[in-house]
Write a structure and sequence with these properties.
By secondary structure, this protein is of the alpha+beta class. The protein has eight helices and 20 strands.
Length: 421
Amino acid sequence: MRPAREARRGAYLWRLSLLLLLGGLLGTGAESRAQPPRPGPLQAKAIGLFRQANPQLYLGNYAKAIGLYKRALGLMPRLAGAWRNLGLAYEGQKAWNKAIVAYERYIQIAGSGGKYYFAVQKRINVCRGKLGLAPITFSMVGSPGKLDLRVNVTGAAVSLDGVLRGSTPTKPLPVNAGLHVVTVKKVGYLKWSGSVGVKSGQKVLLRVKLKKDPHYVAPRRVSGIRYVKAKNEAYITVRTAADGVRLYADGVQLQKNVGGVFVLVEPGSHVLEVRAPGRLTWRARVVLLRGEKKILQPVLPLMRTKKAFNRWGWVTLGVAGVIAGVGAIFSGVENATYEAVRDRRADTRAELNDLVTKGKLYRNVALGLYAGAAAALVSSIVLFVYERRGEQPAGRPLPLVVGPAGRSGGLAISYSGEVDF
């Protein structure tokens, strides 16, 4: 019995060792297959160039980074990360079209599984916005997702890819997988617009905080149970250092209320004039809305400043005429001297050379006088221009007006004065 039992035990151990040996061989083969193949020399060089270009991109050396990325892509055209970073470098140089091409190439190579898939789609829409183009919607293959939109105000209109999807508060909206453009707006608030990426089967929470429009004038609402109609008036405050200021709208003087504010009974487009004793008149065309409060800060030059410009303008013009006359005299003397030289009216060579020297001197003096006359004439013209600045003669167009443009900020310049500011 014992020899048979030992024989069976030996056979069992032999089979177990054979199975372990086969398992080790199979595991070694699987591990060798799971390891990615080592890159070739060209791919390794491309990856090295890619890694050299990244610090240049971060430091803002866009031209150098673009050169390195192009060299890397020349060796390895399907290096997706190089295409993405090349687009970022082109954005740094404001080459929007080239950036879009690079980003689209990244999407073609990396696909929807790329790490920066949604980020690159957003960069494409940013570049399109810089070119004045509308944003585009990117879609993915897969089951729809949901967009849970949370807005800080109720009754705001929600649009998804240009299609109205209701008003807040909304339930989670079913959307196709991809990048979508969301727009939220409400009267009295600044419009919010942005893009959000939704993956297949994913639920994305998007919080939006609308800010109030600082230029919005709310209509006057009810008092009790009866509506109170707002007065058809606009109110204007004039801030200037001049005394005795009067305000006219289309030639009609406006009256002040108790608070010292001018009241315009019929709002709309009017030519406003600010007048003050001893100062020039200021004019501008202003558009006023009902119930609006406007502040004017006109520049009213002193009348004596105009007279001073006029007086000095005539003085410099006279000086220019006198200098030009003296220059003409020296020109005549120069001509007479050269005629004497030409006719050889000198007895000796030394006297002839002396006449030539005097002719050159007279010519230089005449040229200097003419230059001085020209400078005095230019000064006279400048003084006359400054004298006319701010004048409002009847029947002539309004002067140059510089002021804030509308309610969106910035400056506007108009030669007619018809600027809404």
